[in-house]
Amino acid sequence: MKSEEGTETEYDLLISIPPHRGMEVIEKDKLGDGGWIPTDRYQLTMEGHDNVYVLGDTTNLPVSKTGSAAHFEAEVVAENIASIIKIGAPVREYDGKVYCFIEAGHDRATYAMFNYQNPPNLKSPNKSMHWFKMSYNKMYWTSVRGLL
Ligand SMILES: Cc1cc2nc3c(=O)[nH]c(=O)nc-3n(C[C@H](O)[C@H](O)[C@H](O)COP(=O)(O)OP(=O)(O)OC[C@H]3O[C@@H](n4cnc5c(N)ncnc54)[C@H](O)[C@@H]3O)c2cc1C
Question: How many angstroms is it from 21 CA to the middle of ligand 1?
Fold first, then answer.
């Protein structure tokens, strides 16, 4: 197998992930290269527009395209919109926070937590983290439903 960067490697089983692409409509309407909208990494506004917010998979931020990133970004955007209405200025910045559980099989899991400054530092998977993840799934959706 030869990578785009030119490295070659032998393999018995290849699990490959195709290159990520953003939304076609964004590229077609010239809103951003590759289908991602140029986004201020701290304010989460569209570059050049103070009153347009971008979050989730459609940003061009150097963080994972995950529900976790969208969740933490949404907190910042919601608080800033509220504070702009109340006091005329944003009060929070997004620091690139992402937290992802990683299931490792055989009832074991670990997690990756990182932000712009600190890359992930993976720990060995264990059973407690798997059960924490299972219960967190239920707690998350129960609390989200409670807020709606
Ligand atoms: C198989 C899979 C597993 C995943 N597992 C995880 C995980 O374990 N943990 C995790 O954190 N993340 C996970 N993710 C990633 C996560 O699902 C996404 O990062 C997250 O949903 C992004 O949220 P979003 O609101 O930005 O976009 P989306 O959830 O994609 O929402 C965009 C919405 O816009 C709508 N839309 C699109 N075009 C238009 C249009 N022109 N007009 C109106 N509406 C439109 C779409 O129908 C969609 O409802 C997974 C993703 C996949 C595919």
Answer: 13
Please give the distance, rounded to the nearest whole angstrom, from the Cα atom of residue 12 to the centre of ligand 1.
Answer: 32
Write b or e for each residue in 74-100: b if 16 or more Cβ atoms lie within 10 A of its Cβ, otherwise e: eebbeebeeeeeeeeebeeebebbbeb
d(CA 99, CA 132): 13
At 103 the three-state DSSP class reads strand
Ordered per-residue pLDDT tens for the chain, 148 residues = 888 889 999 999 998 888 888 999 999 999 999 999 999 999 999 999 999 999 999 999 999 999 999 999 999 999 999 999 999 999 999 999 999 999 999 999 999 999 999 999 999 999 999 999 999 988 887 877 655 5
Task: Give the N- to C-terminal CA distance of the chain in Å, as an integer.
Answer: 48
What's the pTM value of the predicted model, to 2 decimals? 0.88
Evaluate: CB of 64 within 6 angstroms of ligand 1.
Answer: no
Q: Go through the domains of the chain in sequence order and give each one's CATH number.
A: 21-94 (3.50.50.60), 97-148 (no CATH)
